[in-house]
Each structure stands twice: as C-alpha cells, then as structure tokens.
Amino acid sequence: LDARLTVHPSLQLGPIDRRLFGGFVEHLGRHIYDGIYEPAHPTAGADGFRRDVIDLVKELGVTCVRYPGGNFVSGLRWEDTVGPVESRPRRLDLAWHSTEPNTVGLHEFSAWLEQVGADLMLAVNLGTRGVQEALDLLEYANIPGGTELSDRRSKNGRGKPFDVRMWCLGNEMDGPWQLGHKNATDYGTLAAATARAMRQLDPAIQLVASGSSGRAMPTFGAWERGVLEESYDVVDYVSCHAYYAEKDGDAASFLASGVDMDRYIEDVISILDEVKTDKHSSKTVNISFDEWNVWYQDQYNDVRRVEIGDWPVAARLLEDRYNVTDAVVVGGLLISLLNHADRVTSASLAQLVNVIAPIMTEPGGPAWRQTTFHPFAQTAAVAHGHAMRVEIEASTLPTSAFGDVASVDAAASYDGERVAVFVVNRHLEDASRLTIDLSAFELNGNVMASGIWDDDRLAANTLEAPDRVKLRENSSVRWNGSTVTVDLPPVSWTVITV
Ligand code: AHR
C-alpha cells in the first residue's frame, strides 16, 4: 500500500515550543523513592540520586517537568517538603494510599532537575488548600529575599530563587476521586482568585487552569466552559489529560489513539475560542497537555491498598510494561501534539520513572529504557524549529472506536536546515511505501530513517532483557533529489531526517 505526503517550506504551522517535550514526576509508588532517589544504589551520588537514572533522563531529553502531582498534590502541605530533612513529617498520602516520608522535597527535586537540565513546573494544591497557601509557596519559590518566606528559603540552603515560570492551578479537580473535588464554577472561581493573587505577587508567571481529566468524562466540555467563564482573563493555559490502552484485544482502535487526541485538542480549542469571543477578549489561551501516555489502568485496580493499617512507602504502583505497539501509539500521540503545535505549547509525558514510565529501575540493580522511551527521545532530539502542515494521502483502516482512519499518520518539522518527518504505520499486517515530496526545499540529501517495529508487536524490554526492543535503522530509505521513499513495516514508528 502506498502513502504520500508533501512538506512545503511556506506551510508552517507554528514554532515548536520546547516545553512540548516535558515530563511529569509525581510522588507516587517508586517514582521518587527507589526510583530517581536511592542513596544505597552503587551509582548514587552524595545527594542520594541515581546517576544512571539522571543519564537516561538526559538522554530522553525532557525539557520541563511537572511536579509534585498529580492526585498527590491535592492533599499536599508544601511546607512539609522543605527545611531540615530530619524534622520533616511523615504524612499519609490519601491519593495513593501510601506514606510520604518527605525525604525528597522542593529543594532536592529542584537540585535533581538542575542536573537533568530541565525546568520546573510546579502544581499548587487547590484540593484541600487555597489562595493563601499558593501565595506562600510562590513567595518561597520566587521572591529573591527580604521576606519571611524567601528568607526561610535562604536559611534552608537556597539563596537564589527557584524562579518557577509555570504553575498548575490544582490537578484534575473535575474528578470525583480528587481530594477537594469541585464543580466547574466553584473550581473556576477559586482558580481565578488564586491566579489573580499569584499574579499580584509575580506578574511574569504563566498559569494553567485544570481542564478535564479526560475527554470521556461526562462533564467534558461543560467543565472547560464553566472553568474558563470564571478564569479566562487570568490564565494562560487550560490543561488536557489523556491515557490510552489496548482494550479487549482491539489493537486497530488502540493504534488510532492519535485520532482521539486530535479530536480532544480540537474540541478544547473550539471551547477556548468560543469563550474568547464571548468575552470580547484579545487574548488567546493555549493548551498544556500536561498528562499523556499509554496506561493500562484496569490492570492495576487490585494493587491499590484499602486496609486501614497499610500505608506503604514506595510500593510498586502503576508499573506498566510497554511493548512495541505501545511505543507506536506513543509515537502517534507525539504526531498529534506536533500537528497542533500552534495551540499546544506545553505537554508532559506522564510519567518519567517506574510509574507508567519510559524509564524503569530495580533497587540495587540496573535502569533501562522501555519501548516508549525511543519515540519520545527521537522526537525531542530532532523536532526543532517549526512544525509544518502536512497533508497525508493514505488508505484507510476500519476501527470500532473511531470509524475509518488513515493507515499512515505523520507530522513534520523544519529548523531552517533539516526536515524531519515523524510517521506511524497503523496497519497490523501490511507494510506501506511512503513517498515524501520535499521538492520545494534546498536540502543536502543526507537522508536517514530509524524507528521501532518488530515481528512480535508485543515484545517488551524487561529487567532480564532490557534491550530486547531498540531503535532500528530503516535501510529502505532513498533520496532522489526531491523526494524520499521509505518502506514502513506494519505497526511501526519511523523518523526520517533529510
Ligand atoms: O499519572 C497518574 C495520575 O493520573 C495522576 O496522579 C492524575 O492526575 C491522573 O489521574
């Protein structure tokens, strides 16, 4: 089967914000403890952080990390996380039925991020807390000195401010599972009041209002409208969250998850622009897709502890093992984000280490890349400059969830020198020959193609076989001076650069 697409230098969608390649770290399961932080590990530094994990996170290329939750943040007292470690309280974390020792807090995590080379995106608790506590944290983090909280930060070992630019106003407040869950008007009113207050303190920050926790939520749409009605003028972003999984063996629909993400983003853009019109506003609010990934949620229902006396530290929670198909879906989701780079200017792969993560670790043992590591790392490394508009001509495939979908989907970027094309072949059995028309560019013709595919679409990387699935060169790629041809195996992710 043949597919065809054209990339033209004048058809630019918008600059690719580096924040599109963000990650998410929550105090959840073995993400922090026995994940990034394991003082007894042979690679750990004096600060307790594993160097092998830092190296992998750097290789992944995350640019900005949302922290410290997630559901966790809706019960958090941020003051617990600073000051002398030995005086920090142990607390019950109601979100994940765990005990939080607070050994790693704001200072330690921020020092870890400096080693990783990524920015911090902080979430404030609007579940059990409100305007004052958000203001206190902002003062602690961003005011240079001379006030009680900024001086306390210096006393706690950090003279210069953390200077956090991007702040999430709570997390998934539409979800009945969320501590302090609210209706749209109540949350929108609180988010707007918090945003106004925070801006009075630091006018340069960027603020994210919590959108729906998924497009399938019964309140989706009404929630965004209700929240933005109250907060449009004082926020910069509304969030989207989406998790996908192969359900009941329906691989065709799963492989087309990018179609759902496209529709989700386009629905939210419509609502944002409707509210903008209603408010006669000249300001455009964008999307922060700050939780997205494959997540086999159903599989883990039995892992959540329910006994009153059982509150473990660092239990093995949400440790999904990803296969080749999952990696292709992650690639498809990256394509969807790139194809909306004009309005999605921030995104966070959820999450980073051990918890629905591209990186896994074993206590005292190795750290390794899951299959999903590769599409993210490749895209973060080469998608620079502008996202380009691409029109793809391809055969269609029937899916039960989304009707007929294109069998091949693609996005492209151009940084002034290099064109990069990101492609998935969603077909379960058939390869596809793709022709890319680049005749309008002056290119040096140094063409390369690599990606993820395998005879066994369920192959995965494990502790025993950590490199079972690796990036592969696609040797079928050809350049003829104006077009590229490449054969795309079934269920595959490919990046072509010229
Ligand atoms: O990423 C895991 C959880 O998914 C987060 O804590 C929450 O925000 C979402 O429901």
Observed structural traits:
single chain; 498 residues; alpha/beta; TIM Barrel; 2 domains; 8-stranded parallel β-barrel; 7-stranded antiparallel β-sheet; 26 strands; 24% helix; globular; binds alpha-L-arabinofuranose
Topology of this protein?
Layout: E1 2-6, E2 12-15, E3 22-24, H1 51-60, E4 64-67, E5 91-93, E6 98-100, H2 106-116, E7 119-124, H3 131-142, H4 148-155, E8 166-169, H5 184-201, E9 206-209, H6 222-231, E10 237-244, H7 251-255, H8 257-278, E11 286-294, H9 324-338, E12 344-350, E13 359-361, E14 367-369, H10 373-382, E15 386-388, E16 391-393, E17 396-399, E18 403-406, E19 408-414, E20 419-425, E21 432-437, E22 448-452, E23 472-473, E24 478-479, E25 483-488, E26 492-497
Parallel strand pairs: 1-21, 3-4, 3-12, 4-7, 7-8, 8-9, 9-10, 10-11, 11-12
Antiparallel strand pairs: 1-16, 2-15, 5-6, 13-14, 15-19, 17-18, 19-20, 20-26, 21-25, 22-23, 22-26, 24-25
The structure holds alpha-L-arabinofuranose (AHR).
Alpha-L-arabinofuranose (AHR) binds next to loops.
Helix percentage: 10-25%
Rg measurement, Å = 22 Å
Read across the widest sheet, the strand sequence of neighbours is 3-4-7-8-9-10-11-12
Number of helices: 10
Q: What's the main sheet like? A: 8 strands, parallel, barrel
Between the first and last Cα atoms, what is the distance in angstroms?
23 Å
Assembly form of the protein: single chain
Class from helix and strand fractions? alpha/beta
Strand percentage, roughly? 15-25%
User: What molecules are bound to this protein?
Assistant: alpha-L-arabinofuranose
Q: Return the CATH topology of the largest domain.
A: TIM Barrel
Domains, number: 2
CATH architecture of the largest domain: Alpha-Beta Barrel
What's the mean pLDDT score? Answer: 97
DSSP strand tally? 26
Uncertain segments? none
How would you describe the shape? Answer: globular
- CATH top level class name of the largest domain: Alpha Beta
CATH superfamily of the largest domain: Glycosidases
Enzyme class: hydrolase
Subunit structure: Homohexamer; trimer of dimers.
EC number: 3.2.1.55
GO biological process, one term: polysaccharide catabolic process
